[in-house]
Design brief:
Length: 105
Amino acid sequence: MKRTHLITSILMLIGTLAWAQDSAPRTDVRQGVQRARIREGRVSGDLTRKESAALNSQQRHIRRSERRAEADGTVTRREQKRLDRKQNRANRNIRRAKHNSARPD
């Protein structure tokens, strides 16, 4: 039941973000999904408070980078590649943190 609810929430979030009219909507969608994974990990106990704080900080950094890239009205391929790399790294960090043996606090 909880898993179905989570999947439904993520799909609704993706649908909502897909309609956003940003220069980098792909980045927004991925970031929304990653934030949902962090919340789910914290609720399920897979992430400690410290891990979730670090992951959320990384997401804020990506969002600031995205805003800087969009500041001139367009996101170049180079900027998009840089954002993709940051999100790939964040994705790996989320997975590692959720699957390590740290005890929830």
